[in-house]
Amino acid sequence: MKLSTELKDVRGTASACLKCANCTTSGWPHDYLLCPIYAHDRCFAFSCGGLMYIIKSLVDGQLDYDDSVAELAFTCASCLACTDLCMRADGLDTIRLLRHEVVKRGLVPEGRARQIYDEVNKQGDFGHKTGLNIPDKIKSDKAGTIVFAECSHTDVQSKIAESAARLLVKIGNPVSIFSEEGCCGATLYDYGFWEQLGPLVKANWEKMKAIGGKNFVFISPHCQEFIVKRYPELVPGYTGINSRHFSQLLAVAFKEGKLKSRRMDKVKVSYHDPCYLGRGLGIYDAPREVLSSLDGVELVEMKRNRENSFCCGARAVGNYFPNFSEENARKRIKEFEETGADLLITACPYCQEVFHKVLGKENKRVRDLIELVDERTE
């Protein structure tokens, strides 16, 4: 969606909603609930389709912008389920546009959304430089592989970056790093902070374009999805990049014998498919291939997995339903516990962060895939 798009421009899309509720559940025969806000309260208003009707009412002047509308828009977890399930429209992008409209009116919910808003207004950006440092023994400006060092917000991301650096040394291939002081644009785009987005994305692309022809490796699926899928819409002259996720890099390293599993105690793990790695990028097999390459690791699937994975709720920053993000994470944790697995593994720092928020930072049952591989390889 172009940054110049206005809510009135998508009135036709909003009007086309058939109230079929396909945006809420997976297909037959499972019919798993996938939309987090609809799963919380099975009312049509609390779904992508319901938000479409709210958008139509706002455009037609039948409803006024207020705090309640803003809270509901930001409570959407941005899980991509509606976009994946509906063949008629990109529901999430329409909801992002609604967020942009409420942000322009200063109707930003208190809490995490307001913190991001204040930081963006103060700095013109969001986030700070990553903690990923590539050791000199493998660092080379001539390397064909470039690690995209996403901006960092939490201790979780820093620890994952440390494990990623150790794994790159174990693999031994030369790499270089693409590091920015702030956001790639994914968070600003998702939450409707579009005023600062255009210049930031353009500047990032100019630096990436100058590198040209090399392979970018991403740790955060949110950054990868945004650059691969949204830059073409936002950046004039975008020519595409070669990209893969860190899990794909690890899968290849195991196949080539550059990573070797250590003999350790047997452990059962359940893998949580992150929304943007799975539904966003279509990467389901690589993380599972990596897990199968680790000696003593047995994968036990949760009932909702792959394209039917249930969102962790980390990106829900509104409180139309109080403490919604944490409650959503608890549902996913309960599903993990039902498997009888020892460890809950994910491949997105936001997922790990919200699971830690519910279980406590000291809880050792939630690990990132990169951390697990670092621990169990030579």
Structure description:
This protein folds into 3 domains: 101 residues, no CATH class; 107 residues, 3-Layer(aba) Sandwich (Rossmann fold), CATH 3.40.50; 115 residues, Rossmann fold (3-Layer(aba) Sandwich), CATH 3.40.50. It is 43% helix and 9% strand. It is built from 16 helices and 8 strands. The strands form 2 sheets. A 4-stranded parallel sheet has the order 2-1-3-4. A 4-stranded parallel sheet has the order 6-5-7-8, sandwiched between helices. It is globular and about 65 Å long. The mean pLDDT is 92.
Write the layout of secondary structure elements.
Elements: H1 11-15, H2 36-40, H3 48-59, H4 67-75, H5 81-85, H6 91-104, H7 112-123, E1 145-149, H8 155-171, E2 175-179, H9 186-190, H10 197-211, E3 215-218, H11 221-234, E4 242-245, H12 246-255, E5 267-271, H13 285-292, E6 297-299, H14 324-337, E7 343-346, H15 349-359, E8 366-368, H16 369-375
Parallel strand pairs: 1-2, 1-3, 3-4, 5-6, 5-7, 7-8
The rounded distance between the terminal residues' Cα atoms is 45 Å
The biggest sheet amounts to: 4 strands, parallel
Beta-strand portion reads 5-15%
The share of residues in helices is 40-55%
CATH class of the largest domain: Alpha Beta
> Per the principal axes of the C-alpha atoms, what is the gross shape?
globular
The chain-level mean pLDDT equals: 92
Features:
alpha/beta, Rossmann fold, 3 domains, 4-stranded parallel sheet, 378 residues, 16 helices
